[in-house]
Amino acid sequence: MGSQQLDIFGLICVAITLLAYALEERGPVWVLIFAGGSFSSGIYAVMQGAWPFAIAEAAWTVIALQRWRRQRLLRF
Q1: What is the count of structural domains for the chain?
Q2: pTM of the full predicted structure?
């Protein structure tokens, strides 16, 4: 993947994460989308060689998945 393509991928990942964060209160699906955006941002960080950022994004992914699971259980 070229540098410009990688930058575009990173921009899309962060944009999805930001949008999902803003819409989290609308339902659990947005928390799940946030988790996916965080995971994708972590992949981007690994591809850039930014390991501290990748570790932080992995943590956010786990936290978001736990919140999504908890919200789903509360709805049923």
Answers
A1: 1
A2: 0.90
